[in-house]
Every structure is written in C-alpha cells, then in structure tokens.
Amino acid sequence: MKISKSLPRWSIAAPIFSWLLLAGSVAGAGDLLGVYYTVLLVAGLFGGVLAAVFHAEIVAHKVGEPYGTLVLALAVTAIEVALIVSLMIAGGESTTGLARDTVFAAVMIILNGMVGLCILAGAGRHGEQTFGLYGVSAALATLAAISVLTMVLPNYTTTTPGPSYSTSQLAFIAVVSLVLYGTFVLVQTVRHRDYFLPEAASGDEDVHAPPPPAKMAWISAGLLLACLGGVVLLAKSLSPTLEAAVIAIGAPKALVGIIIAAVVLLPEGIAAYQAARANRLQTSLNLALGSALASIGLTIPAVAIVSLATGWTLSLGIDVKSTVLLVLSIIVATLSLGTGRTTVMQGTVHLVIFAVYLFTTIVP
Predict the structure, then answer these.
(1) How far is CA 315 from the centre of its chain?
(2) Nearest residue to 121 via CA among 232, 284, 257, 245
(3) Residues 62-111: pLDDT tens digits?
C-alpha cells in the first residue's frame, strides 16, 4: 500500500457516516425509512470495514511487524468482547451460551475460512509460499490447547452436569486462558519476535516504503477504533433484520451468529487476504491465528467474570458435531502448516472443511 502524506477523505468520512447512521437508528430513522435505511446501514457497515483495513495498514506500517497485526487483532477482539458482555448483561441468564457460540464461530471462520482463502489466493498467484514455521507452530499449539480447554473439556468434567464448569473450575480456566494468551503475546513481541517476522522480498514496495508520520499514525489509530466500533454496532443493529431473513428461509438461528462473526472479522480477513496476495503469507497467518487466539484468550476470561459476578451458569461446551469439526480443523491446520510451505492443496482442504461447517449448520 502506498502511503500518501495525508489521509484520504473517504477514510475519515466512513467512520463518521457509520456513527451518524447509528445515531439515526437510535432516533428512530429506521422506522421512518424502513428498508431504505437498512440499505444505508449495510453501506455504512462495509464502508467502515474498508476504512478499518486502510487505517490498520497505516498503523501496522508505522509500528512494524508483528506489532501491527497484534494491534488489529486486539482492537477487534476488545470491541467484540465489550459487545458480548453488554449483550449478556442486558439479556440475562438466557444468553449464557452466547460467548461459546460466538467464539466457536470465530475460530472456525478464521482457522478454515480465512486461512484457507489466504493460502488459496496466495498460492494461486505465486505458486508456492513460505512462512516462518516456529511462529505458526507456537500459535497452533496455543490455539489447540486453549480451544479444547474452553470448549471441549467442560462436557467431560463431573463436578457439575452439562456443558459447564463449576465456579472454581471456571475461575481456573479463565486464569489459564489469560496465561496462555499472555505468554503467546510475550513470545510474539519480545522473547522470540523474529519467529513472526516476514521475510522481506527485495521488490516489495510495502516493506521498503517509508513509514507514515507519527501524527498520521495516531489519527489512523483513533479512526481504526472508531471504524471497528461502528462495524460491530452496525452488525448488532442489523441482526434483527438478519435473523428475520434467516427464519424466513427456514435456516437455523445459529446461522445468524456465524454471519455476524464473519462481519466483525471482515477487517482482519481483508487485511490477511491482501497480505497473502502480496506474497506476505507470514503477515497473513499472524493476523489470522492471532485473531483466533485473542478471540478465545480475552473473551472467555471476560465472560467468566460476568458469570462469577452474577451467579449465572456459563455454557461453554460445544456439541459432538462441533467437537468433531473443531478437532478436525486443528489436526488439518497442524498438518497443512507444519512444513513452512503452502500450495493450493492446503487452501482447498481448509475451505472444504469450512464449507462442511456452514452446510451442517444450515442442514444439521
């Protein structure tokens, strides 16, 4: 991406437009304009996504790798966690499975949809791509451990019945999740930062372009948060309309959660796709796997605090079908990313698993 001396007007107007639409929704503009306002909301959502990707690139280029990918992953996840916690507090005990459904959807979208599309797009353009094996292996090991501990093990503990932990178990798992994610961030940014650095190609203009001025980077950081906040809240505003459309076509309500998770992850997905197309697969995988880890490592402790404070029983365990797909995804990701080289074969396998996940959600 070529960085100019000033931010383009559209990148500033997009988040403003998103927040104006949200204000209009609160004021009742949706009731007056009906479907036309829904179209405006969708336009504002995708405008916010594109602006978020642009500003994330600015910030990433300023701070360098792997900090740039970490900034986007943490920003998206923090806003996602805030949304989930607010919905849980507002919805009461009936929403205690919301975090599980959202986190599982995010992991499947990232581990199969995002990773598969990036590998396929990059390999389709460049034939074969390489990446640092040590960093990806560390991310996959952490993701496998934290996924099973938070979404599979609750089904097999005996202190409490059902897919939930007891109070002491939930507190312990929340701490374990933070320890695993915190250690990964420490390894990624301090102890073994070189494991996550992409190999700079001699002809890559993005790598060798001068970084943006500090003032522009700070403005972009603020606008990035504004864009992500607008995207998440617009997705929330559109969810009733989306749910009605899903019910109208006879699909399960679980599809709504998948679509919303996909929309929230769009900024990271587009950034990862662009990096893979530019032959920077390491950056692409940093974004994808880092997002999955942040989604679990920050969401589970946050909702655990809500559960412990309110006394609600938090449902974390996924069903048997979801467990099979999760374990299959982890095994395939470990094998396909275990050589440091990727081709269209690996990308196709991941996308097929993602297609099976979507199909079995609609036709369980």
Answers:
(1) 21
(2) 284
(3) 777 677 777 777 777 777 777 777 777 766 777 777 788 888 998 999 99
CA distance to 41, 56, 77, 191, 268, per residue, from 222 (Å)? 22, 10, 16, 29, 17
Q: Candidates 3.30.1050.10, 2.60.120.200, 3.40.190.10, 1.20.1420.30; correct CATH number of 9-362? A: 1.20.1420.30
Alpha-carbon distance values, 284 to 114, 212, 262, 280, 290 (Å): 9, 21, 17, 7, 10
Residue 131 DSSP SS3: coil
Domain ranges of the chain: 9-362
Reduced 3-state DSSP string for 33-50: HCHHHHHHHHHHHHHHHH
Q: Token digits for 199?
A: 């190999």
* Stretches in the chain below the pLDDT threshold 50: 1, 201-205, 207-208
Q: How far is CA 167 from CA 91, 298, 318, in A?
A: 21, 18, 19
Of 171, 220, 195, nearest to 62 by C-alpha is: 220
Residues 236/238/240/245 CA torsion (nearest 10 deg): -140
CA 112, 115, 118, 124 torsion-angle sign: negative
The residue type found at 69 is: T
Encoded amino acid at 169, one letter: Q
Q: Are 17 and 47 in contact (CB under 8 A)?
A: yes
Supply the mean pLDDT for the chain. Answer: 85
- Whether residue 66 is preceded by a cis peptide bond, meaning omega within 30 degrees of 0, is yes
Residues contacting residue 130 through CB under 8 Å, at least 6 positions apart: 199, 281, 340, 341, 342
Q: How many CB atoms lie within 10 A of CB 178?
A: 15
Residue appearing with tokens 């999760």: 326
